[in-house]
Every structure is written in structure tokens, then in C-alpha cells.
Amino acid sequence: MILGLVAVLFLLEELNAELGTTPNLRHIVIGRCYNYITLINPSSKYDCEGIWREFEEAVVRRTPCSVRVKDYQRMFRATPQTLPCDKLLFWSKTHNLVHSYSAATRRFWTLEDTLVGYMFNDLIWCGKEERDRGFNFSACPEWSDCVNHPVYSLWKQASQNFAEAACGNITVILNGSITDAFNRKSMFGGVELDSLNPRMVHHVNIKVVTNLEGPYIESCTEGSIVDLIKILQARGFRWTCTDNDLTLMILQCMKNPKQYSCLTCADSLLNRKKPVL
User: Fold this and answer.
1) Where are the beta strands (DSSP E) in 1-54?
2) Could you confirm whether 167 is annotated as catalytic?
């Protein structure tokens, strides 16, 4: 009985640890910063320890649900970055595929390829409820629990900065296997879209991708994608929309080559006539 109780308590502690601030957060963030300026973008120069201090000050001085976007201003001022034109890639509900696409093509920058995005990707953090300064490694609130969530506030500002810097042609990849592929409550629909400048962005390339096995819910002519196109038109953006981009489909098939749609695609490519020389 006692052993069973100990096991339950241990599991609860493990669960709480998973929901709290990511263990070793300081070492991860600073380590990623040094990795970025050494290997990812060696031409950049940043004070990694200084960036951490500004981040820490924004979070540990406040309770978990009271970290506003503006509380990160000093940290963002310490991480200025010029982004390339014609290469920015936006996404919503297509996280894994988008980053495979970016890595495979080597033509795009996602938010996670910026310094801030690279440092904080997939991490969780929050301060303590008590007056004691520090991070809470036991439990953090869900994003939906409060407006001024410390993780949400940082990503909201990072997303806004990313979109405001966009120029030339940009690409947006959305998930056609879900309802509301374009969602006004998402980071793309609620923050990035409104931050795009039509005088700087010449063309918006929308790519709608569905899961190989379906369902096939939305497309360039169905569902919320149509709403996105209407917004782009109203704001003066030029746009194109593509369903089932071949490169994206090939990337999906590499992970699941036995899907019927992959076999059909392979046959189609093999049966193409060779060009006449």
C-alpha cells in the first residue's frame, strides 16, 4: 500500500514537472543563443547572457498570468534582426511539415529560424505566485487560462516582429484537413496577418495541404481559406493559392510511402514522358 502511494506521488511529481517551467531553462536558452551565433548565423553578434537577463527580469518579477507583451520590450531590443526578403514562411497547424519543408528546400525562414524563435522554441516558463523571485518548475498555467500568459506574450511579440519585417514574396502553409484552417484566433490569423504591410509584401503564396489519408475539408475554394483570400484582396495584396503542392506531398510520402495517394503519385511521376531533346 505504501509503495503504491509512493509510486502515485512520484508520478504526480513527474506530471507537474512536465507542466512547469522546462528544467534547465537558463542553460538551454543561453546554449541555443551561442549555438545560433556560432553555427546557425555566425555573422550575427549578440550578448547571450544579457538577453537571458532581460528575459528573466520580464518573467520572474511577475505572477504567471501577468506578463504582458510590453514586459519583453527590453529583451527584444537586445535581439534586433534583419530578415531576408522573399523567404519568410508562415504557417498554422502545420508545424512539423513546415519545418521539414523549410529544411528540405533551404529557401525559407520560419519564425523558429530567427534568434528569438530558435532560443525559445518548444519551451515552457512562468514565474512563481509568491513574492519569491524565480521560475516555477512545478506548474504553469495553460495558455487559455489567462490573457497575459508569459509564453503567449513572448510569441505574440515575436510573431508581430516577424510579420512586420516581411517583404517581397511570402508563403503561408495551412492545414486543409481541419475546419478553420485559417483561424482568426491563431497566431497567424490574429497577429501575423494584420501585421503584414501591403506596401512591403508584393505577393502572398498560400499552400493548402491535407493529410495523406484525409479528411479533405478545406481547399483554395472551400472553407476558411476563402475568407483569408477575401481579407488579402481587401487589403490590396496580390496572392496565389495552391492545393496539394507536390513538394509537400513528397515530404509526407517519405514518412508514409505506402499510402495509396503516394503510390498513385509515384506512378504518375514514373509514367511522365521524357522531354524530346
Assistant:
1) none
2) yes
